[in-house]
């Protein structure tokens, strides 16, 4: 998966829901940390959409314990041809804990998305640029989800998205929460390459997400 154009991911903990996502999504983000028996779900998967496997650790807003089993599960996931990409927190690529998993993915031609989340605030433009440069130096896509508390936070995020895209880096950005919600529809115009939406907004995997059908329509209409 090259992520060279905008990719809409249906975020779900239930792979059997994939047929409902096909009309709108380009891929499924499988939230293994929120799923029951994720490896069995992967083994049974016979859907059409490729999978981005995420096993989000608790310190980055997910539900997976920070142990070897979490990374081992991602390594098992990349053995399936249906898995086109995995998500790893930038922090665990920097610390070295996730490097083996990233290498394992690359050997299988599976893309790596390096993630950064800030659930409190939007870092300065300089810091966001630095984080996304670190992420894109180590992975196929650098993803930054921040929390906007003002419109200027969103403008800063869009500006960094635009700059790094112009410099040839593959980034995915979004502002979580109400204030930044519109960024999910607008960031693709500035180069953001992945958007996430649940099939039903009751199953949102992050604050402020639009449901999949709505995000698909907004992105399509805005990008023309
Ligand atoms: O990292 C991301 C982005 C996200 O947090 C969002 O804000 O849409 C949703 C998560 O499911 C995904 O893993």
UniProtKB/TrEMBL annotation:
Question: What metabolic or biological pathway is this protein involved in?
Answer: Metabolic intermediate biosynthesis; chorismate biosynthesis; chorismate from D-erythrose 4-phosphate and phosphoenolpyruvate: step 3/7
Positions of the catalytic residues: 117, 143
Top-level taxon of the source organism: Archaea
| Alphabetically ordered keywords of this record | Amino-acid biosynthesis, Aromatic amino acid biosynthesis, Lyase, Schiff base
Annotated Pfam families: DHquinase_I
**GO BP term (any one):** amino acid biosynthetic process
On whether Transit peptide is a keyword of this UniProt record, the answer is: no
Q: What is its EC number?
A: 4.2.1.10
Oligomeric and partner information: Homodimer.
- Spell out the protein name for this chain: 3-dehydroquinate dehydratase
Recorded source organism is Haladaptatus pallidirubidus
């Amino acid at each position: 998966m090259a992520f060279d154009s905008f990719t809409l991911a249906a975020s779900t903990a239930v792979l059997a829901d994939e047929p409902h996502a096909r009309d709108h999504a380009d891929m499924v983000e499988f939230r293994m940390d929120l799923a029951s028996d994720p490896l069995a779900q992967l083994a049974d998967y016979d859907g059409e959409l490729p999978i981005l496997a995420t096993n989000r650790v608790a310190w980055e807003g997910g539900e997976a314990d920070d142990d070897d089993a979490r990374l081992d599960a991602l390594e098992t996931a990349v053995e399936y041809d249906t898995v086109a990409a995995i998500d790893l927190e930038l922090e665990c690529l920097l610390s070295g804990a996730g490097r083996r998993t990233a290498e394992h993915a690359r050997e299988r031609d599976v893309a790596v998305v390096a993630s950064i989340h800030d659930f409190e605030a939007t870092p300065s433009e300089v810091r966001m640029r630095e984080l996304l440069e670190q992420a894109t130096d180590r992975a196929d896509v650098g993803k930054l989800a921040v929390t906007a508390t003002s419109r200027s936070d969103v403008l800063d995020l869009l500006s960094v998205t635009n700059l790094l895209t112009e410099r040839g880096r593959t980034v995915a950005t979004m502002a979580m929460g109400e204030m930044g919600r519109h960024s999910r529809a607008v960031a693709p115009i500035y180069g953001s390459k992945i958007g996430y939406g649940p099939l039903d907004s009751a199953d949102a995997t992050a604050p402020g997400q639009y449901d999949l059908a709505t995000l698909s329509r907004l992105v399509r209409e805005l990008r023309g």
